[in-house]
Amino acid sequence: MTSAYQPSMFDLMSGPAEAVASLTGRLTRHRLTAGAWVDVLPGWLHGSDAVFETLLGIDWRAERRKMYDDVVDVPRLLRWFGPREHLPHPALTAARAELNRHYAEELGEEFVTAGMCLYRDGRDSVAWHGDTLGRSATEDTMVAIVSFGSPRNLVLRPRAGGHETLRFPLGHGDLIVMGGSCQRTWEHAVPKTAKPVGPRVSVQFRPAGVA
Ligand SMILES: O=C(O)CCC(=O)C(=O)O
């Protein structure tokens, strides 16, 4: 058996207009320690096949990073869309609009940037980290992730230790939102896997100044 992504019958029949359903009353909130939380909604986006096909064709960039005395390949491809850039598929613009509608009061500002990662296969990954390069180092915020393609696990653990690692399997069209103090009190990762997985694209919506 392979866990590679397979187009669904529903997705073959639906168009961008039906892609984004209301989030009201549909999210499950997992309250973590230290004021962190995670909201989850499997299968949020319909029409994800078309979005995924589009995302596979964007101008992905390979990066290299300094690690100790070496410079190594980042094990995934990257693309970042700034606040004024058009997103590559209308369903992503609609998804961001619905996230902004739903979280307006709780977040108090808008999701404006979209970071994207392409995990080509199970050898690609992201190591344990929190998104603490910006305001999220000191302020509560939210990072909303929509996942496309092959399922991969997003795992979370508290920086303070003393808690089991939590595992959230993310499949095609699934939404996960990390909120509260999550970026500074917990860490997340997408581990490598030896399973025969196909490509996965992660789209991360963030407010300005959160990275
Ligand atoms: O692939 C994901 O969903 C997570 C990506 C991530 O943690 C990051 O880019 O900071």
Automatic annotation (TrEMBL):
<dbReference type="Pfam" id="PF13532">
    <property type="entry name" value="2OG-FeII_Oxy_2"/>
</dbReference>
<dbReference type="InterPro" id="IPR005123">
    <property type="entry name" value="Oxoglu/Fe-dep_dioxygenase_dom"/>
</dbReference>
<dbReference type="InterPro" id="IPR027450">
    <property type="entry name" value="AlkB-like"/>
</dbReference>
<dbReference type="InterPro" id="IPR037151">
    <property type="entry name" value="AlkB-like_sf"/>
</dbReference>
<dbReference type="InterPro" id="IPR032854">
    <property type="entry name" value="ALKBH3"/>
</dbReference>
<protein>
    <submittedName>
        <fullName>Alkylated DNA repair dioxygenase AlkB</fullName>
    </submittedName>
</protein>
<keyword id="KW-0223">Dioxygenase</keyword>
<dbReference type="GO" id="GO:0051213">
    <property type="term" value="F:dioxygenase activity"/>
</dbReference>
<dbReference type="GO" id="GO:0006307">
    <property type="term" value="P:DNA alkylation repair"/>
</dbReference>
<feature type="domain" description="Fe2OG dioxygenase">
    <location>
        <begin position="110"/>
        <end position="209"/>
    </location>
</feature>
<keyword id="KW-0560">Oxidoreductase</keyword>
